[in-house]
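ARCHIVE CARD
Drawer: 12
Card no.: 0347
Subject: one protein chain, sequence and derived structure
Cross-reference: see card 0346
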Amino acid sequence: MSAACAAGVFAPLLAARSRAAALGDRLTLAVAGQGEMYHLPVLLAEQLGFFKAEGLDVVLRDFSAGALALQALQDGSVDVVSGSYEHTIRQQLNGYVLRSVVLHGRAPQIALGILPRMLPQYESVRDLAGKRIGVSAPGSSTHSFARWILAREGLNPQGATYVSMASATAAMAALRAGQIHALCHSDPIIAQAEQKQGLRVVVDARTIKASHELFGGTMPASCLYASQPFVHKRPDQVQALVNAMVHALKWLQTAEPADIVKALPASYLATDRPLYLAAFHRIRETFSPNGMMPDDAPAVALRALTLAYPELAATKVDLARTFSNDWVRKARQKFNV
């Protein structure tokens, strides 16, 4: 290999290493259910090398639910979380300021379905009072969504038993055994339950139109969030993270199914590739095209949370402290988004 050719081949790698050294230590990024489509942009950023291209050494840590990823952040065992925006609101009330730095999902990508053989006389959501509803974990976005659904119908949001279903395997087993009456989760778990266990979706927030009709505006969902001290002390790393995520979101806008298959680890598609791709096609539009937090979104989220958790009504939340679009604006300029 000639010296000129070698320089061309290795220059990008050396440049990335140089940037990594400048940006400091590796980052640990918690993902609240890595196999769920909710976090697809993060997985793509890692698999496509977008983190490395920004000079970052990112380690992904998978947690079975958003509440557990949040706990890891509070414990200091991770630096950043890919999780639900709602945590930035709820934790502010506990004196813990979290900030969303880039938005991935502009709809919850969650659905609630009932098992007809367990509820043969089902007529409306009101029939779920006193029943067992599977969610990813207490305190997670699926739990909040289920609570909100009950409260929206005038029911006590605590008037059902919420059962942790942290994985597709657990959810399918519980449905098969008749241990739960309903399941509130995201794809591909909901899609799998529909196909294999006869789940009937009765409340669906997996499209932009459905989500807007349910919430009366843009309901922000998956995002990257970190503690305020972290974003204050390590702004260069935050900007690099946001750059990588905006890059992934841009890539996702034009990717073909074959591109998704090629980018993802084989284990993600091994169970049922057609089912996964069909579910992706349904929710694709809900991924943000640019990472920006829409103007109406924080207030929509607060309104929904106040209904799901009535105790929040008596508190005051400074929504301006729960997110920032500053890093995204710079990333959009870089990638012409």
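Annotation on reverse: The chain is about 45% helix and 15% strand. The domain at 110-205 is CATH 3.40.190.10 (D-Maltodextrin-Binding Protein; domain 2).
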